[in-house]
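Continuing the series of single-chain predictions for the mutant panel. This is the parent chain; the variants come on the following pages.
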Amino acid sequence: MVHIGGGWDEVIGGEFEKPYYLELRSFLKKEYANGRVFPEMQNIFSALKTTPFDSVKAVIIGQDPYHEVGQAHGLCFSVQRDCKIPPSLRNIYKELEDDLGIPPASHGCLVSWAEQGVLLLNSVLTVREGQANSHKGKGWEIFTDEVIRKLGERDKPTAFLLWGGNAKQKAPLITSKSHLVLSCAHPSPLSAYNGFFGCRHFSKVNTFLSQNDIIPIDWEIKE
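Parent structure:
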């Protein structure tokens, strides 16, 4: 039985006993035993462990973890401090500066966002080294759909940022009228100019939170 804490066990703990997850667990045991998989096993659920269920104010949905050595640590779009900032995150920083005037950070670790209630959740939580999407379709999507569904059912006003086609597919899971759902292109260099740049999602989230008497996010990345 996986123990996450932060109120998540009561909300999604039942998933770990379902047939799809038991199959996924068996697959992951082989993957970690026979090759290099990211993130490290103890960091698979870092997004949930860092942002308790009741603390979630905003959700950013990624695709799957970075697949090169030293990058992934369980939070979507985030990399470990000593790692080069990936192109998509550079574009996120560019939009953040254009939107709120916050200059780009010198590193790519987004833990400070997660600790304030921004759930940084990938749709797929593991990946084989050097092979993007290698764990797609193995069961993680069922699990993360349930996470989004549970958050989407809450009455607590929450902002959902759906960047790109994969993230937009989660929209039907967000059922409460209390929420703000923002969609745009993915921040990847291949698509950022098709609607990510200029989306102003960071300021829109804070306006929404303030209107609902919720403390806004300090989007400035701490050095």
